[in-house]
Amino acid sequence: MITIGQKFPAFSKTAVVSLEKGKEFETLTSDYLVNDDNVWTVMFWWPKDFTFVCPTEIAEFNKNYGEFRDRETRLIGASTDSEFVHAARRTHHDDLRDLKFPMLADTSKSLAEELGILEPNEKIAYRATFIIDPTGIVRWVCVNDLSVGRNVKEVLRVLDGLQTDELCPCNWEKGQETLTV
Q: Which residues participate in catalysis according to the annotation?
């Protein structure tokens, strides 16, 4: 599995960015992750759109979209479902219609495989979360088993810590003192 300190792999994938007719899809590339504006990226993966746990996570990331934006961080959601499955799930799930971030489609499963997050039996993505700095380097990885949803507040807490570029003690939260050596 790709890990901390490694460059996020190159990719070019279709993403659902809207439900507006004719504007549903865009191509996202790994170039989107690298920037001079000090913008971070959180890419989170889920197994399948039409399941029970996945929509709860997608909706929770969306509810916290402003928190990520306030931290100059882009959100990208992803799974091995197609862009058409993503569009259908957004259309038919009340909590997903107004998503503020793209839903990346890795139908070839090549990116999930390169990241090392492809479940070996069903060939679907694990619940993986990557925090990527503005240079395209992975700074945090968390992977949950298929049956357990992640904690979005923890993703925000770790992002806050990474963005301080200081030593953050156990259970540290934004606004608390960091460690001095």
A: 54
